[in-house]
């Protein structure tokens, strides 16, 4: 489908909660479980810290996919944070879908500190999805030059 | 503008093998704010940290980025190094280029490119970091234990032994709780009173323990290290300080119709009573609803016979205000009311009893003096049928969805005790599963079957029917695929364990969370099983979930250790990465207050100078000792007033920008 | 054949609205059943056979027609499984299979009898047509 000559190198921002998913990523690393280099992690204290604005900003700045990973339901370090994240992101993702950012470009998943394998699997699968979708062109008109951010 | 130093670690060959270190070092030199960029084989080593300290001195660094292993590994190390060099520890950020980069990417070019991105993301964040200082608060060196059963007693004793003051608040007239009602304990069959009452005496006599019986916690404010609690001591109508506990009043009391709660209502007690002989304190209490003096104004016999003149009909509730550093919840359980289980005829047939009632019947101090007799006619039963899982594992809403955990074992105990004392009595047990995880538990159950001849039937009872003065128990035997009808003289129901009714109210008072079954939720199901998510509140015993006595005691002691650990500190250092509301931006919407899992946000009226005029505004105030820094409030804040220090909106935005550049 | 069996399992679930997987095998249904003595398959077996996908055997069993629909099992089941509702569903499956379209609209006028209540006709339609 794609007519790009250059191989598509997507950009994926992963928001990981400090207590479960970030530790899961560490475990994936310690276990040498490879996942694509385009996945880049931003550490947040809890999945509920992820403001929808951060997700929008990522897409505005050219991200092709955004994934948010938190503790499993019931295991949240802050008891209920991941439930808040689930509610917020469900709404946000469906709104983004409506705006033309396909729902496959956004994902919320639960990855515990013990699930290094799951972390790698989730990131590999998500990356595959993004590769299949191709470059994200939405919000391109809102994209500013990076110099503005400095 | 920050003066940032970037230190790229080789981690031996762990990073250097996959990432071209020099590229990263050079790339960082052109990042905004970076004044120094270097590399070293092992940044975490003594020499590496020395390099960091030298660089701070030489280049006047205000921010530090370490490109190395996961912050979960060495963040604390580098923060301490920064502190030693005179830089605020929270001006340090780590770029994780080992676990998230060199260890998982084979392609050197790809890994190097990613390392550059991760490093510049950390630089972008540090540019917006601000020095943070952990707050401190005082610790009141006194603990409150709510509940005076075995869990509360054990916690209190352990805390007291460690040298701290403890208060026990118990709503019943005596401490001892449910364990005091038990006859024998599994799997050793030692007598419950023999092991419990010495502990009760120890607690009562301990110089560090104060016991408030017949009292309830009414109000709680404050936070970890400094809770203010109001306790209401209900009027006993007997002056505890001068009563000698001689018992004359109880002998003479003419009101004899009240159900004896301690004996599960199997016999009656007087209106002035001591729940049981070993009760602590050994001071009677007047049940004002039963007392003739309180009902009609005539009587007062107890007051007349009291040699110490201790009876006081005018006594009022007393209010105690006290401050505590930590609170232990040990509110325990009661057994499920069986009103929804008509088929077992519990409400109609006196010979259908619960297991706790059987405990009292079997107990030498119980209503029958320890003889196994039918409540209906006082005759010895020839056949006893036990029914397991009554109200447990029930998803229809009549009972509880969970397994009550202790029933299998106490039923085996009851069956064994009956067979031992009365070998002529037939004992059958209807079970769904026999669950015996525990040291010597399965052996115990097998002994009941193999040595004591208890008949275990895999099936459930459908109905109990009274027939010719006996009870016909209709059940199924699934292994035989048959229906069985057993004639019984006594039917014992293993009714489900349920969180005590007081748990819910206390959860609200303490902002300790409870689950759908009103059991307190632990802070982490595996790693923090005795802490509540609310700092300074600990959980002990069945109030957290069904447990047997050894488990309860273990948890009680664990909770005590946590309390001692807290009380041993003079000051509490709090995580400085917490929320803060900008008072000028706050619109007073209360969203943050509603979303906070800890109740850390409250609203205050404050006079502010806005556009040159003084105005009183309702604004959010974060209690720094309570906030744990999850950031839930920052997202719901409609006015953008709420932000999280260390993970601020602008910092994360900058990270996103740097990452997507 | 396999496909066919799946269809049966799905139909049983669809008609009854019962999830046999929530059964915890306690046997309270069998303990409560007043028609137990006449049955070749006891109520708890009925549930576990639906769970195992053995619907065909159930359709051929005599228990199906011995169940009194007294709902004692439904009332007492601690897991809300409703064995009797499941029996009713399998009964309906047998009836529907045997009948196919056993009545058509054309035949109705000659069958009409003033004494037949309207409801019986509606019910017959529901039962005998797909």
Structural class of chain B: alpha/beta
Poorly predicted parts of chain B = none
User: What's the overall average pLDDT of chain C, rounded?
Assistant: 83
The pair of chains with the biggest contact is: A-B, 46 and 50 residues
How much is the radius of gyration of chain C in Å?
17 Å
Number of strands of chain B: 34
Output the CATH homologous superfamily of the largest domain in chain B.
Answer: FAD/NAD(P)-binding domain
Rounded to the nearest angstrom, the distance between the terminal CA atoms of chain C is: 21 Å
> Do you know the CATH architecture of the largest domain in chain B?
3-Layer(bba) Sandwich
CATH H-level superfamily title of the largest domain in chain C: Alpha-helical ferredoxin
Strand content of chain B: 25-35%
The total domain count of chain B is 5
Provide the CATH architecture of the largest domain in chain C.
Orthogonal Bundle
CA-based shape of chain B:
elongated
Largest sheet of chain C: none
Which key features would you list for this structure?
heterotrimer, B: 661 residues, alpha/beta, Rossmann fold, FAD/NAD(P)-binding domain, 5 domains, five-stranded parallel β-sheet, 18 helices, 28% helix, 25% strand, C: 130 residues, mainly alpha, Fumarate Reductase Iron-sulfur Protein, Chain B, domain 2, 2 domains, 9 helices
Sequence-ordered SSE layout with sheet pairings:
The complex is a heterotrimer of chains A (150), B (661) and C (130).
Chain A: E1 12-17, H1 21-30, E2 39-44, H2 52-60, E3 65-70, H3 81-98, E4 106-110, H4 116-133
Parallel strand pairs in A: 1-2, 1-3, 3-4
Chain B: E1 4-9, H1 21-29, E2 34-40, H2 46-59, E3 63-68, H3 71-84, E4 92-96, H4 98-102, H5 108-126, E5 136-138, E6 142-146, H6 150-161, E7 165-169, E8 184-185, E9 190-191, H7 192-205, E10 209-212, E11 215-223, E12 226-233, H8 248-252, E13 258-259, E14 268-269, E15 272-273, E16 285-286, H9 292-296, H10 301-305, E17 318-324, E18 326-329, E19 333-335, E20 352-354, H11 355-362, E21 383-390, H12 407-421, E22 426-431, H13 441-450, E23 455-458, E24 461-467, E25 470-477, E26 482-488, E27 490-495, E28 497-499, H14 502-510, E29 537-539, H15 549-567, E30 571-573, E31 579-581, H16 591-595, E32 601-610, E33 613-622, H17 632-636, E34 642-644, H18 649-660
Parallel strand pairs in B: 1-2, 1-3, 3-4, 6-7, 6-18, 7-10, 18-29, 20-27, 21-22, 21-27, 22-23
Antiparallel strand pairs in B: 5-30, 8-9, 11-12, 12-17, 13-14, 15-16, 19-28, 24-25, 25-26, 31-34, 32-33
Helix pairs in contact in B: 1-5, 2-3, 5-18, 6-7, 6-15, 12-13
Chain C: H1 2-16, H2 28-32, H3 43-51, H4 55-60, H5 63-66, H6 72-76, H7 83-99, H8 108-111, H9 118-128
Helix pairs in contact in C: 1-7, 3-7
């Amino acid at each position: 489908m794609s007519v790009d000559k250059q191989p598509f190198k997507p950009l994926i921002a992963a928001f990981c909660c400090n207590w479960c998913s970030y530790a899961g990523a560490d475990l994936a690393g310690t276990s040498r479980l490879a996942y694509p280099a385009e996945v880049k992690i931003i550490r947040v204290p809890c999945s509920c810290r992820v403001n929808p604005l951060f997700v929008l900003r990522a897409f505005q700045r050219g991200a092709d996919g955004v994934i948010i990973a938190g503790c499993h339901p019931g295991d949240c370090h802050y008891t209920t944070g991941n439930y808040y994240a689930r509610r917020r992101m469900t709404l946000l993702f469906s709104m983004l879908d409506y705006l033309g950012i396909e729902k496959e470009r956004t994902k919320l998943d639960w990855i515990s500190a013990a699930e290094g394998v799951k972390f790698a699997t989730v990131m590999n699968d998500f990356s595959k999805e993004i590769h299949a979708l191709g470059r994200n062109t939405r919000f391109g008109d809102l994209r500013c030059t990076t110099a503005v951010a400095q | 503008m920050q003066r940032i130093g970037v230190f790229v670690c080789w981690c031996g060959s762990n990073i250097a093998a996959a990432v071209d270190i020099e590229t990263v070092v050079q790339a960082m030199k052109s990042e905004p704010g970076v004044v120094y960029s270097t590399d070293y084989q092992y940044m975490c080593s003594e020499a590496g940290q020395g390099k960091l300290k030298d660089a701070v001195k030489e280049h006047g660094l205000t921010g530090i980025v370490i490109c190395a292993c996961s912050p979960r590994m060495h963040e604390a190390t580098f923060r301490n190094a920064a502190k030693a060099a005179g830089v605020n520890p929270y001006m340090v950020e780590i770029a994780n280029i080992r676990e998230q980069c060199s260890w998982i990417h084979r392609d050197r070019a790809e890994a190097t490119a990613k390392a550059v991105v991760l490093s510049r993301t950390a630089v972008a964040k540090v540019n917006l970091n601000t020095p943070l200082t952990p707050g401190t608060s005082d610790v009141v060196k006194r603990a409150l234990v709510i509940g005076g059963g075995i869990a509360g007693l054990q916690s209190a004793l352990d805390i007291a032994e460690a040298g701290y003051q403890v208060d026990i608040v118990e709503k019943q007239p005596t401490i001892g709780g449910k364990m005091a009602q038990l006859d024998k304990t599994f799997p050793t069959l030692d007598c419950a009173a023999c092991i419990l009452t010495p502990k009760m005496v120890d607690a009562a006599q301990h110089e560090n323990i104060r016991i408030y019986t017949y009292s309830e916690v009414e109000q709680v404010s404050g936070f970890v290290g400094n809770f203010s609690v109001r306790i209401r001591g209900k009027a006993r109508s007997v002056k505890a300080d001068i009563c000698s506990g001689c018992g004359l009043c109880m002998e003479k009391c003419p009101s004899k119709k009240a159900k004896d709660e301690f004996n599960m209502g199997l016999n009656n007690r007087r209106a002035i009573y001591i729940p049981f002989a070993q009760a602590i304190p050994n001071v009677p209490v007047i049940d004002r609803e039963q007392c003739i003096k309180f009902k009609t104004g005539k009587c007062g016999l107890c007051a007349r016979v009291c040699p110490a003149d201790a009876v006081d009909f005018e006594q009022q509730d007393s209010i105690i205000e006290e401050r505590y550093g930590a609170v232990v919840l040990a509110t325990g359980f009661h057994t499920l009311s069986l009103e929804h289980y008509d088929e077992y005829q519990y409400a109609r047939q006196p010979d259908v009893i619960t297991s706790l009632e059987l405990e009292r019947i079997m107990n030498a101090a119980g209503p029958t003096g320890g003889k196994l007799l039918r409540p209906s006619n006082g005759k010895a039963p020839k056949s006893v049928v036990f029914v397991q899982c009554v109200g447990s594992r029930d998803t229809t809403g009549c009972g509880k969805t969970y397994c009550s955990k202790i029933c299998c074992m106490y039923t085996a105990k009851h069956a064994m005790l009956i067979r031992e004392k009365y070998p002529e009595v037939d004992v059958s047990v209807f079970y769904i599963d026999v669950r015996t995880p525990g040291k010597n538990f399965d052996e115990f159950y097998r002994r009941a079957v193999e040595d004591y001849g208890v008949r275990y039937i895999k099936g459930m009872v459908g109905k109990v029917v009274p027939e010719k003065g006996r009870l016909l128990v209709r059940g199924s035997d699934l292994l035989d695929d048959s229906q069985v009808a057993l004639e019984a003289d006594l039917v014992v129901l293993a009714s489900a364990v349920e969180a005590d009714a007081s748990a819910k109210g206390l959860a609200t008072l303490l902002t300790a969370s409870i689950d759908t079954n009103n059991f307190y939720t632990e802070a982490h199901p595996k790693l923090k099983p005795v802490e509540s998510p609310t700092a300074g509140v600990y959980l002990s015993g069945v109030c957290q979930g069904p447990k047997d006595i050894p488990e309860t005691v273990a948890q009680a002691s664990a909770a005590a250790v946590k309390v001692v650990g807290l009380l041993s500190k003079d000051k509490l250092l709090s995580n400085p990465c917490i929320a803060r509301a900008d008072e000028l931006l706050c619109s007073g919407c209360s969203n943050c207050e509603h979303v906070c899992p800890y109740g850390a946000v409250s609203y205050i009226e404050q006079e502010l100078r806005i556009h040159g005029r003084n105005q009183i505004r309702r604004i959010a105030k974060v209690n720094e000792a309570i906030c744990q820094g999850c950031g839930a409030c920052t997202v719901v804040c409609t006015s953008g007033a709420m932000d999280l220090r260390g993970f601020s909106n602008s910092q994360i935005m900058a990270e996103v920008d740097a990452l997507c550049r | 054949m396999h496909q066919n069996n799946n269809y049966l399992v799905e139909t049983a679930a669809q008609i009854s609205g019962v999830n046999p997987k929530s059964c915890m095998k306690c046997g309270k249904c069998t303990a409560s059943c007043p028609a137990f003595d006449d049955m070749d398959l006891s109520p708890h077996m009925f549930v576990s056979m639906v769970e195992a996908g053995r619907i065909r055997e159930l359709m051929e069993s005599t228990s199906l027609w011995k169940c009194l629909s007294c709902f004692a099992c439904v009332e007492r089941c601690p897991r809300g499984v409703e064995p009797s509702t499941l029996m009713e569903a399998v009964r309906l499956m047998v009836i529907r299979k045997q009948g196919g379209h056993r009545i058509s609209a054309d035949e109705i006028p000659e069958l009409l009898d003033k004494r037949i209540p309207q409801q019986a006709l509606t019910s017959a339609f529901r039962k005998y047509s797909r």
